[in-house]
Amino acid sequence: MDKSEELELVPPELRQAVEFQHNNPIRVRSSAMVDIQQCSGNPYTLENGKIVYVTFYTHLDKKMVEMYLHEAYALEEIARKAAELLPTVEWKVCSGTQYQADFEFTSSHQVWNSIRTTLFYKFNFLLVHLERRHHYC
Q1: Sign of CA dihedral 15, 104, 79, 106
Q2: Position 136 in a domain
Q3: Is residue 118 part of a domain?
Q4: Range of the domain at 57
């Protein structure tokens, strides 16, 4: 994955800030969710959680958001965000991309272990495939 492909994982309105942070690493990064002072290491990892760029894919669409995920509650946090972004149906939350679901997340541990860090910009990202839950009577 090259730099431009990495930036495609970031919400469009935040891409310039990610590039700036990468080019000016000893600055304060301001986020909608948390303020971070980067001194060393990964600026997207904090003591109790991580800032993660999450891409939610449905069969027809995708939504990208910045989230602060806690290791113990990651599944609940992404399920809640999916319901907030796409409230018309109930969603099954899976690992995967727009056209492929790898597996359904059943624990926060699985979500946490699916978070990846990019090579160039060093940010955390998660790809989430949403499938409609079907209720049968």
Answers
A1: negative
A2: no
A3: yes
A4: 3-131
